Amino acid sequence: MSLWSKLFRRSNVDSSDSPLPTSHPPAHKSPPPSDNDEIALLSRFGTEDGPDEATADRLLHIALTTPRQQKAIDAIAHAMMHHEVPERLRLVCAHTLVQRGEIPRALLFLDSVSQTPSLMLKADLLHDQGNVASALSIIERVLARDLDTPGARERHRRWRAQLAPHLPISQDSRDVTVAVPNAQQSPYRIVREIARGGAGTVYEARDDILQRSLALKVYHQSSDQEQLQREAQIAIQLAGEGIIRIFDIDLNGGWIALEWLPRGSVREAIRRAHIDALGEPSSFIHKLALTLSHVHERGWVHADLKPGNILLDASAAPILSDFGIAVRCGEPNRGGSTGYLSPERLAGAPVEPSDDIYALGRILEDIIRTEHHAWSPWLSLAEHCMTERSTRPRNGQALLALLRP
Q: What per-residue confidence (pLDDT) applies to 370?
């Protein structure tokens, strides 16, 4: 049974656990065209006697330059009622509808898109409709992939100033999980540098007394002591399977010693296209959902979930790290990372567990975009996690319920 079928069966749960939404056809509910022309052929896309993608693309472009433009768009919408229509065909229809001034209908063709051109158009349309938070969230998804996407940084700067200039958000979409030491500041022997970011550097270090490796993370600024202490205290409160273990901390030295996980982070696996390092998708997703369920049950929201903050243990199980800006449910924003913040957070709403679910959806999207075949079936789950707050799973527990067979 497909993931869609499993999720659609769950009709006995509340709205936050509801099945994944179908891709609603943006056409008016008119009957399919007659079977004696190219328009009818377009409407049969996805069927055995329908055209392949290249043929459909050619027929669509031809029809859109003729008086049959509306019928061609309706034909694609008819196909969307029953089959998965490639994003490039939907984008062509959306551009045409924008030119016709049919913005709401154009947005329906852009439902659940993932490619950069489609996301850019969707962001512009949402912004023009006054939905700045959703538009900004989409632009951050684009920037998380490529900072040099033409026009993306300019939009982000302008829309962010328009929406929430007070919100402290990291601008480094390649974010490195903070911090690190020097040999004089800690009792550990530095082996090598692992990662460096604006706040600090991470090293592999060695505890020669206990004969074990560890990760040493030290904040660069003395003003970061509060965040350092907060990170350690929350991780210890949440101690358990799937949570990074804390070994030692020195507030004056500005460092924290954590368990050493040589497999690295999900971010590194994505960057190197080494997705097999994550193990079997359903196991990875279930374990991460279980960890988030534990965090949320204890009344916390991680609030900075991203590929760089999910590490991999020896069995490829995900380990959640970096609780420096975690907050209690309903508390105000303490910041976050570009590309993984929900529209609601960008709009200044108090932080809720569903914001972690949105970030999880974004992480799944990043993994799926590597085109690793084993992860493709999970796109519908990623899209569901990125819907608006009222329809996405409300917390880790709801996500676990959604994943049950």
A: 86
Tokens of 292: 């988030």
Prediction pTM value: 0.72
Contact indicator for 334, 188 with CB cutoff of 8 Å: no
Q: Does domain 189-259 have CATH number 3.30.200.20?
A: yes
CATH number of 22-163: 1.25.40.10
Write the pLDDT tens digit of every residue in 230-288: 889 999 999 999 999 999 999 888 889 999 999 999 999 998 889 999 999 999 999 99
CATH topology of domain 266-403: Transferase(Phosphotransferase); domain 1 (1.10.510)
Give me the residue label for tokens 């709401």.
104
What's the CA gap between 364 and 392, in Å, rounded?
Answer: 14
Long-range CB pairs of 387-392, under 8 A, 24+ apart, other chains included? 387/21, 388/134, 388/343, 388/344, 389/342, 389/344, 389/349, 389/352, 389/354, 389/355, 389/358, 390/15, 390/16, 391/15, 391/16, 391/18, 391/21, 392/16, 392/354, 392/357, 392/358, 392/361
35-44, 208-217, 282-291, 395-404: the lowest-pLDDT one: 35-44
